[in-house]
Design brief:
alpha+beta; 60s Ribosomal Protein L30, Chain: A; 5-stranded mixed beta sheet; 30% helix; globular
Length: 155
């Protein structure tokens, strides 16, 4: 039987797929004590297709970027499930770090990252409220529009 968090995901129409394998010399997550650090997750959907490709403020809208950030959040949760087996063991979403592939004059990165932040609060309630950093960058792997990393406290 699925846990409470997985039932919540199902009610939101979210299915967690197998997490993407690292493409270079790193691992998808590292656990030390009760902290789980999850490597940056690009905005691939379950079929391996980018949810949004290109620059925010250069053809990609804030709404498309927020959808991409939400997809990154789903990918973070897939990594967390792979790491600890049961999402009900998440004590707290501690921090998200977001990278937005941005045109030089794009200033709405925080609105884009709300896609991932809102997901964490939808799924975990108050345990999903977290600290966050949003950084505009010149490029991301595969020309993805968004990448998000996470830090979780786990039982």
């Amino acid at each position: 039987m699925a846990g409470t968090i997985e039932q919540k995901l199902a009610s939101l129409g979210i299915t967690l797929h197998a997490p993407a394998a690292p493409v270079a010399n790193y691992v998808g997550f590292v656990r030390t004590g009760n902290l789980l650090f999850v490597s940056g997750q690009v905005c691939f959907d379950g079929a391996g297709k980018l949810i949004a490709k290109g620059k925010l403020g250069g053809g990609v809208t804030v709404e498309q970027g927020a959808a991409a950030a939400r997809g990154c959040g789903i990918n973070l949760l897939a990594q967390v499930k792979a790491a600890i087996g049961d999402l009900d063991k998440v004590v707290r979403v501690v921090r998200l770090g977001g990278f937005v592939n941005s045109a030089p004059d794009f200033l709405d990165g925080p609105k884009v990252l709300n896609g991932a932040s809102d997901l964490m609060v939808e799924v975990f309630g108050d345990k999903g409220r977290h600290a966050r950093t949003t950084v505009g960058v010149a490029s991301l792997p595969a020309d993805a529009s968004v990448e998000v990393e996470g830090l979780f406290e786990v039982a």
